[in-house]
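dumping the sequnces here before i forget
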Amino acid sequence: MKIKEEIATILLETGTEREAVIPILQAIQKKYNYLPEEALREVCKKTTITPEQIMGVASFYSQFRLKPVGKHMIRVCVGTACHVKGASLIFDALHRELKLTGDEETDASGLFTLEKVSCLGCCTLAPVVQIDGVTYGHVAPDKAGKILTDFLGQKGKKAKSKIRNTEGEKIEGEIRIGLGSCCVASGSESIREAVEETVSNNGLQINLKSVGCVGMCHQVPLMEIVPANGVPVLYTHVDPKDVKSLIEKHFNPPTLLKRLSVRAQTLIENIQDDSRWEGVERYTSDVRERHITSFLGRQVPLATEFRGIINPLDINEYKSREGFTALQKCLTGMSPDEVTREVLDSGVRGRGGAGFPTGKKWEMVASQKAQVKYVICNGDEGDPGAFMDRMLLESYPYRVIEGMLIAAYAVGATKGYFYIRAEYPLAVKRMTAALQFCRDEGIIGPNILGSGWSFEVNLYEGAGAFVCGEETALIASIEGKRGFPTQRPPYPAVEGLWDAPTLVNNTETFALISWIIRHGASAFHSLGTAKSKGTKVFALAGKINRGGLIEVPMGITIRKIVEDIGGGIANGKKFKAIQIGGPSGGCLPESLADTPIDYESMAELGAMMGSGGLVVLDETDCMVDMARYFLSFTQKESCGKCTFCRIGTRRMLDILDRLCTGKGKAADLDELEKLAGWTKKGSLCGLGQTAPNPILTTLHYFREEYEAHVTGHCPTGKCMDLITYTINDKCIGCTLCAQKCPVDAIEFRPHEQHDIIQEKCIKCDTCRLVCPTDAVIKR
Amino acid sequence: MIELHIDGIKLSVESGTTVMEAARQLDIQVPSMCHNGDLPHFASCMICMVKDAKNGKMFTSCTVKATPGMEIITLDEEIREARKTALDLLLSDHVGDCDAPCQISCPAHMDIPRMNHLLAQSRFEDAYNVVIQDIALPSILGRICPAPCEGACRRNSVDEAVSICFLKMYAGDFIHQQKAKPMGNFAFSDGVPASAAMTTLRGSRVAVIGSGPHGLSAAWYLQSFGYQCTIFDRNPLPGGALRYSVPRNLLPEEVLDLEIERIKQSGVIFQMNAEIDPERVKELEKEFDAVVYPLEKPLKMAIKASAFGKEAAWETRQKLSGQPIIGEPKMFNSRFGKLQESEALEYLKESVPGDRIEPANGFTHGMTAEEVVAEAARCLHCECRKADDCLLRIYSNEYQADQKRFQGPERKPVTKQFQHDTVVYEPQKCIKCGICVRITAKHQEEFGLTFIGRGFDVVIGVPFSESIREGLTHTAGEAADACPTGALARKGGRK
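..and the predicted 3d for all of it:
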């Protein structure tokens, strides 16, 4: 009885059409935490949705669960950056901690369910574990138990203080807190609470402002203090307990400051700040005049213009910084053809990966004669190790909306969709709010900006399928089907969503449009290389000192990104390779680091620009393991339609598994290469066609590493089955390793040299990490 | 109309015609499994790939429409290799036997499950015809064969092997007890009908040296193919080792005589007391169109000698008719090895419980008809219901696919769904082409079939916790007939 009523309520919201199936399932899951069969049957009774459709869809998307789960969800991120930093060891540790066996996901008490997620987009905090809403960064295997205890201890605690209203009173300054996903994940929310508390208690007249991602994700959480008269200071790696003293340093009455000065100064020494970076002129000026650090110095923000300055959802602030002027310009002074021409002349190409000229795509859609046309913003960024779209949607929602509106005007579209991946709740939330603000302001809806042109935009939440980044699969998903790609041609530009001409552009592409219109095609055209114009946003992560989101001109070399922007390799290790383009891209060796990055150069080297994931690898990273990592991703994400992709990726993974466990044979390398070739040729969509790239590039550039694995040796010591742990005579007998060993493979012998019982050792790396004298040797 | 070239031949087709349909207009059959008539195409199996001659790119001919000026190659080395690789991959995830393990381990490759199926229905003469197609001497071999088939019998995983050898013996003896003594009525594995009581001969004459199991078998099959055979043997009586080495208590003389008498009846001429030396062989080679020579070394197992005799008959026939000499044509066989415990129970669902039956009247007399019917019913029918018309098998045979090439670390456990009255579903044989899903959707089944999961782990199943019975209320026959493999098949034996 109850389910019937609840389903009825859900259907009132979602509608009962076939295409509503994913929103309906999302609503059911939100309600019950999984999809009870009874609920699904009820949906079939009350709608035009068939059992075949609902089961096909519910079992296709990874977001949906057909079985009940534990009270709390533990998600271990296994994105690229987390993988290279040991995510699988973390997963194993939690698996042990929860006493799970085999494929079991939920612990005996039903308290926790453990699962892997492909990427949480917090690559700079790797390795990352998320329990419900709480994110833990830089997790070490021996901390697995601790985070569970910490999580259970945190439950129920919630600060109640809200910042008091400063309206109409004298403002002493502004405090900006980063609210990108990285910042939030690193605890910016508690920083915010601490600021609110301090400000309330001291009666300060201060604006507290949330800003989008600055891109300096390696330094999060960030807090910037901007006094009304004085130099703004950016604090990094802020700890909530230091917030009070930091604020007091800038704003407190002298008497109080005096009282605290001694304490504050000692504290501040422990915190990195950017006060030594000169020329911070961000308080009054509109545009950052001079670049302040090498991190920001090489960057050219177009899609990320005004980074760290504007409040993502403040539509007035967006407007005050030339927001919607490009749209205004198009609607009042340019014909749709002129807009398309401008985009074509700029030379901008699709930022989703394949690099199809954007203007050409627009022309194709524009030339179709149809009553109904659609525009879709592809925000289904599924590559592990990439978070460009997420950051753009979270931090610049209006810019992306403006880009879409201009595109819609140019191609004559009647309706738009934002397709945003389910794993990005913040982006969905921000974009939903931004769309509503736009409607309120008359920027979306009938008679936009008084021009007589009307356009409506909907937001569609993906449900977890990498393949839906492929445009035909994305369209199938919006239509309420399994994400099976279809044969092209017909291209979506001719026959797309509900068979109408449809323009599908990547989020980043849309984010560049307003800049192009404002500055003109030639300004954009003057940036970049011969065939790749403008800038590209990359998610820089991995073994570098400074990771984060960067926007650089096309044609910048790999080395400049790694060394100048990324600050070189972390921990004094050697630069080995970069992985560019995620699962569709490839690994390029350090010897090619002087290659200028553009679409053509990357494709020539066997990699791919992809959507912009850029993971830096050092000498400790095993290339066979990297290939295996990406194949395990693609084979999991294959839709399962084409033989070569469905079975071929699994068989390639089988071969890589053999190599990484010392069971490989020399003939395996040739078979791997052959099968990779056929999978490229024999797959219908981009997923299968590019899935072999990580194998082909590593085989090409690092063949000797594969050959070493055939002989049972992993040169980097990454492949667990090919290594052993031993303790040498540096051991001081401190017993730390014996205490920490989760399987009692080390006998407790104080003051004596310890020893590892090989039969028991599970190679979890804990002993090596805890050893104070580096006496544990992995080889 | 659209003009294009396929394999160098110019043709014009209606707009909207797919490349596959266009090729069919030229009688070029592009292989295809996932495409089915008017159902919407799906492009899954990938074996219909052809090549665009202009850019060398391959694509699925079932989905791509002909465009003006296209130049298509439907088969070359690269396409052959691509199709073979696709088949190798599909086979690596296809858990099922085409022929049953007993048949594969039988040196004569006798269709044991079919024999069992007929015996269980008391169709003894039909069973004899199945046996005689591959084993020329059923009554003899039923008594002396060490029965490698029983060693391979999957029933061993449940309790004990089916008593195949006694069943075969019964089929042979049954004929000898008939007054009319039918000679046998069967078709050869290449579809050529044969009759042991040949009325029309092809004109060529064949000399067969030796009248042991090898010679008798060779002569029986050659005579059935329509060649007049003459057996030459130096002994006074025919049978070779069967008569002069095998102990009489194992093989009574009258059984031997009856079996040889049947071969004589088929028209084979026996020349006994014929001394065969190299000189005489040369003469025979001149006198006859072909000579079947004896085995170089005598074989311990009479069934093997008999199987080689059949093989020699095939080779002789191929030689005489100017065909390539390959012996008896062998079909591709999908195999998956030993049964796991859970699987033995799945197989038992198709059979009856009960221990192996031993002949109550003693081994020399063999089983009674009742015992035969009961024992034959114990067969688990491990063979595939679509062994003769499965497209995966036919193409694997044609492209010489290799099931072991991409063997994974572990195989999926076999399951069989019998809830339905008329069809059986074996998901592990499925190649995920989705034809059945499209059929049930087209005919608006309430539950139908759907894709469940994705990627390598995707399966076709009935939504919710419903069974195949609810999934296929009025489309079962159509879906089973359209299924390109044995995953979904009609109940009952093969056609």
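The first helix of chain A runs from residue 2 to 14.
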